[in-house]
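Chapter review: from sequence to fold.
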Amino acid sequence: MGIKVKNIGLIGLGMLAGVAATMQFPALAQRAAAPLPLDELRQLADVFGLIKTDYVEKVEDKKLLTEAISGMVASLDPHSVYLDKNAFKDMRDSVQGKFVGIGIEVSMEDGYVKVVSPIEDSPATRAGILAGDLITRLDNVPLKGLQLDEVIKKMRGQPNSKLVLTISRKGEAQPLVFPIVREEIRVQSVKAKMVAPGYGWLRIAQFQEPTLGDMVKKINGLYAQDPKLKGLVLDLRNDPGGVLPGAIGVSAAFLPGNSVIVSTRGQLPESQQVFYGRREFYAAPGSKADPLARLPAALKTVPLVVLVNTGSASAAEIVAGALQDYGRATVIGTQTFGKGSVQTLRQLTADTAIKLTTARYYTPKGRAIQARGITPDLLVDETLEGDGWNTLRVREADLDKHLSSDDGKPEATRPTMGEVHDQLEQEKRLIADAKTRKRLEYGAQDDFQLQQALNHFKGLPVKLAKVDNKAEKIVDKPEIASDIKAEDKKAPVSQP
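The token string follows.
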């Protein structure tokens, strides 16, 4: 793959930026410690001692050891990480679909933080923040040059604490200043509406604990408007992932009962699992009710299109892969991110943990998702003119130290100098165009990929993307994997 531009087009919900990691939260049990390499531990102790005695300033023991743990875990792959007290809390809050902040979706464009959309009934909305506003300062500190995740951290804080935003708004000669009080924000991960007579649109922005319940309500609302729905678009574009039971439940809503949804393979016995579309795999822990029981029976057979793009990752790829493998849906869009690894949370203390990669995900037909992603059945660009920023966005295979796909196939080769030059020129054009073009709104009348999905339903021509012969093509059609018949196991609460 070629060079990519980080942060462009990726959206943070005031809490996350980029692609959310897959997470599993098993019952925590201490295992027998592995044999310790004594020579290397002596070197570590020697380095610790040298820093304590010779470094220019005094360094606290806790800081040194914490940083050593963090570096050791981070050296493994891009998704293994040490979680300190604040990161541990933020991670748990994000799984629940809530966070403390001001309630805006933001993106990074041309080095500036741009408001994509204020969240409904949030402090930002009530203060008058508008989509398209550029945030130039937080508490009078300039943001130019900061990464998106750094900005998001600054916008979060304690409930009832104040944050002052300096905004540059088109049409206003002077900067605007907005004092805003932070509060707990609950993110609505599911949206739905009728986009044409007889055709519904269901968008899942992120898989969270409330997602299944919200999805059931939205789908029933669509069928209340039209009991004879002729087609449904499941929009997973820019969905960075979320909880695994949510992905299983969404897939199970459209597939026959007891269908295999996804399997995992890793070093530990508990990592060799198969997840089925049954209540015990997607219902909340301790719940005896089936959250999908209230769905209309027609949902199992309604014509279905799944929309994906480079920002579709992890749980979104699990859903798209399962529905594609069974031929239940036509997948339309562009190659997905390729985040197909499982991160298991291992708690160290009451408020710290490590998030450790322990397995890879595979579709029902045994296709590796890791560093591969899901290839759409119909490749369709974001706009009629092309795929915009998606052509330059980072994928899993572009990340340093990324986990291989483990499927025996070669990964994409590095670009030639000519290809690098072409991509740099394309980047310049996109940056120039971004200053004038209208922001894409998913589900709107001018949503090009959505309109191609409707054309597909209606038997009309679909405008396909122009495919470069040098582009990586991933076409796997293996038989159902042999481990599909593995013993049923209850799914832990998980976050892809």
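Two observations follow directly from the output. Residues 36-95 form one domain. Confidence is low (pLDDT under 50) at residues 1-30, 469-496.
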